[in-house]
Amino acid sequence: MEIIVAPTPKHVGEFAAGRIAKVLDAKPNAVLGVATGSSPVPTYEALERMAQQGLDFSQASAFALDEYVGLPEGHPQSYAEVIRRDVTERLGMNPERVHVPRGHADDIPAACEEYERAIATAGGVDIQLLGIGANGHIGFNEPSSSLAGRTRVKTLTPKTRSDNARFFDGDLSLVPTHCITQGIGTILDARIALLVATGEDKASAVQAMVEGPAGAFCPATALQWHRRAIIVVDEAAASQLTQREYYDFVRDNRPDWQR
Prior knowledge:
Strand order of the largest sheet: 1-10-9-6-2-3-5
Helix content: 25-40%
Number of strands: 10
Structural class: alpha/beta
Number of helices: 8
Distance between the termini: 15 Å
Radius of gyration: 17 Å
Largest sheet: 7 strands, parallel
Order of helices and strands: EHEHEEHEHEEHEHEHEH
Strand content: 15-25%
Shape: globular
């Protein structure tokens, strides 16, 4: 793991956007993995500024991590709509190249298999943007999820549903109980895993992910096995890391090719 501690959420977003831009510069038709939630927002804001300055997303493809099951097509809080608003339109991507699991499909298991095939057909994800839940989930892989799982249906924990109620006007009854999510195994297939986290409420999960034993009860610990995982956090999210001095030393002494 490469651990980067940035001063503020804005700096986290700028650093993460720089890594994505580096991939896109080298491969204009790169396959991007995109995430929803609050943590990636500063990254998308930084990428939008880069797009306005000439960074070209028109040949890139994107695959979203997850989607709610049961929301009607076009629902404003479906992740298909969130990705359309926050990623596709703001970055100038071709909508036909942006993919989200079909949580409104009649045959959900078939939709999961279809999504796995689509990622494989695209050549796999070049760089996967991730957030982390306060309970250590990535995507919607909740604690106790298989660390080898593929795209499938998952039941959301009461904590995750409670956290996400803010997107449904605070009404928990409107938050779906199920989702389609890329599995941990699918996420680990990405060539680069780029996780961003901000805020003190993520500090415990970040510490467990980076320094705790790898296991299903903190799904994000699976990134310890990834061949190229980059963890970018702000000061608040880094506040419980015990090896902070070493991480800063590594950051400040990266070889030129890694910058």
